[in-house]
Write a structure and sequence with these properties.
The structure is a single chain. The protein is built from 20 helices and 16 strands. The protein has three domains: 2-23 and 143-229, Glucose Oxidase, domain 1, CATH 3.50.30; 37-138, Enzyme I, Chain A, domain 2 (Orthogonal Bundle), CATH 1.10.274; 248-542, Phosphoenolpyruvate-binding domains (TIM Barrel). The chain has helices at 37-61, 64-77, 80-91, 96-113, 117-138, 159-163, 183-191, 202-205, 227-251, 272-280, 302-316, 351-356, 358-372, 388-407, 424-428, 444-452, 470-481, 498-505, 517-524, 529-541, and strands at residues 2-5, 7-10, 13-21, 150-154, 170-175, 195-197, 211-215, 220-223, 264-269, 286-290, 320-323, 378-382, 417-421, 439-442, 486-488, 509-512. The chain starts with a strand and ends with a helix. It is globular. The structure holds phosphoenolpyruvate and magnesium ion (MG). Residues 422, 443, 445-446 line the site of magnesium ion.
């Protein structure tokens, strides 16, 4: 038995006999053709045409995510620059295989150097296009055919190679290359197949047919497991299956404690696609729409925002809490000309920027929300509040926006207004907000960083942040004491250990990533409200 460590790329646990995919033999980049350049160039043209036809077939068979990746690779196959570059190399004497590989690599290196993550990521698409053309030139197959339940072990797997795979037989994937955010990880997650990538010794340590346990949650691979390891894996897989089946039952139900107290389970979203996912997963509403993520290429206009909010609300057909732009901190927006700051998390962030630049930032968004609210249940949530005066100032702007809209002849509606409790200042003085706001939602991600003075992006100090520490729980308890409905929309809202404590302290809405909704509902159903209250009381007293 041997344990290998890699990168967890797609969650889940599975085991099975290994099928090894060895990398194709390397191309001799100096190989010269022996015939004339024209016939070598026509070999290349035919290979490109065949590769394109094959790619079109694969794209049709692929699921949506994989099809998008394949579309990018197909574009590269058709790229005139790639073809002309290779033809010039053939004219200089190289074989078609050597020519296309050389040019694809040069092109990929150029792309990888561009200071734009989208273009840099296309480097792999070019290499893949080159490999596909070479496979056609060699007459070798690119497809992998499975005949029995299998763990695929390879140096790397391209999205195209995964398309034809029978997912009833494919148990898991292990690769030597790859990253947690790479194409293979996206494809494996989409297929629901556990995957561990970046496992450098995989091809040396695993032999064809040997049994392999793949843990895509932790990034570990056990080769030739003993009986005990195998039995443990089997029982974990059974448990996970059971948990999944149980969670399915909760999807369509409301969030209820064991004694039937309703705790709303809402979703955090940042796009229309996530709104759709929220509905599918059984969200009772959206508790946090992170709108600043609509502005990664600059602020959208009022009209563009109006269209987006209407579209999302129409998809949801349930309450939608829109957080006004939380720009700043680790979420910069281009085009706003914000001077760089020494401490961006303590800087010109969230409501501060909105109030200081109302015409440009705050008001177009408010107008779009109030207009979309004419037909839907929308609510406004203000981020990074540290003082009640900020809310009062925002309310004046919101009221004047409504007046303006009505006098301009728009249909618009007054909506509930809430705040994010993300600063200790807001939690400690929450009583001063009574009458000013309709609801509060605790952003535990920021409240934790500001309470423990731990930068949420600094891995070095993360262990000093205590999401279930006494100080943080006391701030939450204090927030819940005010006569204001309280939600939690930070990561803590989906933490199994934290949920009973939060509810026990008085939280009545949990807003979480769409995928977590069924499991949050299941956790809620495990205890009665009084049991949760007892846990909460113990948690805020003890260290
Ligand atoms: C939070 O701070 O907990 C929160 C939900 O907001 P964000 O993570 O977007 O800062
Ligand atoms: Mg926050």
């Amino acid at each position: 038995m041997k344990k290998l460590s890699g990168i967890a790329a797609a969650p889940g646990l599975a085991f099975g006999p290994a099928t090894i995919i060895r990398p194709a033999t390397a191309i001799d980049l100096t190989a010269k053709h022996t015939g004339d350049s024209e016939s070598e160039q026509s070999r290349l043209t035919t290979a490109i045409e065949h590769a394109i036809v094959q790619m079109d077939t694969l794209q049709h068979a692929a699921n949506k995510q994989t099809a998008e990746i394949l579309a990018a690779q197909r574009e590269m196959l058709d790229d005139p620059e790639l073809k002309e570059g290779a033809e010039a190399q053939i004219a200089a004497g190289l074989t078609a295989e050597a020519a296309i590989t050389t040019i694809a690599e040069e092109y990929a290196v150029q792309l990888a150097q561009i200071d734009d993550p989208y273009l840099a990521a296309r480097a792999e698409d070019v290499r893949e296009a080159g490999r596909r053309i070479v496979a056609q030139l060699r007459g070798s197959s690119f497809e992998i055919h499975l005949t029995q339940p299998t763990v695929l072990v390879a140096q790397d797997l391209s999205p195209a190679e995964t398309v034809g795979l029978d997912i009833n037989l494919l148990q898991a994937i292990v690769t030597e290359h790859g990253s947690a955010t790479g194409h293979l990880a996206i494809v494996a997650q989409g297929l629901g197949i556990p995957a561990v990538v970046g496992t450098p010794e995989a091809l040396r340590a695993i032999t064809e047919g040997s049994v392999v346990i793949v843990d895509g949650n932790t990034g570990t691979v056990i080769v030739a497991p003993d009986e005990q390891a195998l039995a443990e894996a089997e029982s974990s897989i059974k448990q996970a299956q059971q948990a999944r089946q149980e969670q399915e039952l909760y999807r369509e139900q409301r969030g209820l404690t064991a004694d039937g107290v309703h705790i709303e389970v809402f979703a955090n979203i940042a796009s229309q696609a996530e709104a759709q996912k929220a509905v599918t997963m059984g969200a009772e509403g959206v508790g946090l729409f992170r709108t600043e993520l609509l502005a990664t290429r600059g602020l959208p206009t009022e009209e563009a925002q109006y269209a987006i909010y209407r579209e999302v609300a129409a998809t949801l057909q349930r309450p939608l809490i829109i957080r006004t732009f939380d720009i700043g901190g680790d979420k910069p927006v281009p085009g706003l000309n914000i001077p760089s700051e020494d401490n961006p998390f303590l800087g010109w962030r969230g409501i501060r920027l909105g109030l200081d630049r109302p015409q440009e930032v705050f008001l177009p968004q408010i107008r779009a929300i109030l207009r979309a609210a004419a037909d839907y249940d929308l609510r406004i949530m203000l981020p990074m509040i540290a003082d009640p005066d900020e809310v009062a100032e925002a309310r004046v702007l919101i009221d004047s926006a409504l007046e303006d809209l009505l006098s301009e002849g728009h249909t618009a509606r007054r909506v509930p207004i809430g705040i994010m409790v993300e600063t200790p200042a807001a939690a400690l003085a929450i009583d001063q907000y009574v009458g000013l706001i309709d609801f509060a939602s605790i952003g535990t991600n920021d409240l934790t960083q500001y309470t423990y003075a731990v930068d949420r992006t600094n891995a070095q100090v993360q262990k000093r942040a205590q999401p279930l520490g006494t100080a943080l729980l006391r701030l939450i308890a204090l927030t819940c004491k005010a006569e204001i409905p309280v939600a939690v929309c930070g990561q803590l809202a989906s933490n199994e250990q934290a949920i009973p404590i939060l509810v026990g302290l008085g939280v009545r809405e949990l807003s979480v990533a769409p995928a977590r909704i069924p499991e949050v509902k299941r956790t809620l159903a495990t205890l009665t409200l009084s049991e949760m209250q007892a846990l909460a009381q113990a948690a805020i007293k003890t260290r």
